[in-house]
Structure formats: structure tokens, C-alpha cells
Design a protein that fits this description.
176 residues, mainly alpha, AhpD-like, 9 helices, disulfide bond, CMD-like, AhpD, Alkyl hydroperoxide reductase AhpD
Length: 176
């Protein structure tokens, strides 16, 4: 049984829709393999339950996503964990002076992420959705559209983010 299907089968009955959506999105064809599985892995890292990270990573590897690409996916998730908190905070603050200051955060990985730029941007967008950073969502969506990504492809990344987030919440709640 594919790793995400196996994980979906462990979700309780109240999360049947989450399980169904995990299965459906694992077969999504709007995104390429690396983009799709990268969204799953990046979002699993953003949400955190070990079982989810393991299942998403195993599914990506089974689909032929390289270890180098997985490393780039993890870099996107780690970078967004940092950037989303900072940019969400300054966006929410009333004092606009903070938005005018340079972040002074090191994000060198964006210069050479180890994967196609479009994939890295999709992964960053998906994690930004989970982390709730409107400023980062807008910035990554604008970059994706400039790179020729369609609204349906952006939506697919957001759908993966929503479902992986829900699965992570269910797994964390059931572990209590």
C-alpha cells in the first residue's frame, strides 16, 4: 500500500474526508511529480508529526523524487518557518516602520535552492499557507505567476497544504 494511503487508513472515522483528500491529492496531475510530492513533504515538515513526515517522504521517494530534491524541499520548509513568522509579524503590526526595515535574515538558499525555481516557489507558497503569512503568500504567488504557473497549479499546492495540515492536526490530536 502506498505510504500516504497507509497513513490515511490510520486516521479516525471523523477525519474520513481528510483521508480521502490525501489519497486524491496524491494522484493530482496538475503539478509535476517533484512539485506535487515536494508540496507534501514541505507541508509535512511545516506541520511536524513524525508519521506524516515519514509517509510523505517515503511517498516522494517511491515516486522517484531524488534525495537532492528532498533536501531542497526541506530547505524551503525551514526557510519559510523563519520568514513566515517574521513577515507575518511585521505585516500584522500597526507600526509601518518595521515593514520599511530590511529583515536582515539570511536566506541564501533562495539563490540556488537545488531544485527548479518554480518548484521551490510552489513549496514555499504551500508552507506559507500553513503558517498563515499573507505577505509571503502574495510574494510567492506573484513570482509563480511570473514564472508561468497557472491558477489551477497554485490552487493544487494550496489544497495539498490544507489537507496535509489537517492530517497533521488529526495525528497530533490522536496522539494526546
Amino acid at each position: 500500500m502506498p505510504p500516504l494511503d497507509a497513513l490515511a487508513s490510520t486516521l479516525p472515522a471523523y477525519a474520513r474526508d481528510v483521508a480521502t483528500n490525501l489519497r486524491v491529492l496524491s494522484e493530482e496531475t496538475v503539478l509535476g511529480e517533484a512539485a506535487r510530492w515536494g508540496c507534501f513533504v514541505a507541508c509535512a515538515h511545516a506541520v511536524g508529526p513524525a508519521a506524516l513526515v515519514r509517509a510523505a517522504s517515503a511517498a516522494a521517494l517511491e515516486a522517484g523524487v531524488s534525495a537532492e530534491t528532498i533536501a531542497a524541499v526541506k530547505a524551503a520548509a525551514a526557510t519559510m518557518a523563519m520568514n513566515n513568522v517574521y513577515h507575518r509579524a511585521i505585516h500584522l503590526m500597526d507600526n509601518a516602520e518595521y515593514r520599511a526595515l530590511p529583515s536582515r535574515l539570511r536566506i541564501n538558499v533562495t539563490r540556488n535552492p537545488g531544485a527548479p525555481r518554480v518548484d521551490f516557489e510552489l513549496w514555499s507558497l504551500a508552507v506559507s499557507a500553513i503558517n498563515g503569512c499573507g505577505a509571503c503568500l502574495d510574494a510567492h504567488e506573484e513570482e509563480l505567476r511570473a514564472l508561468g504557473v497557472t491558477a489551477l497549479q497554485v490552487q493544487a499546492a494550496l489544497r495539498i497544504a490544507a489537507v496535509v495540515h489537517a492530517a497533521g492536526r488529526v495525528l497530533a490530536a490522536e496522539a494526546v
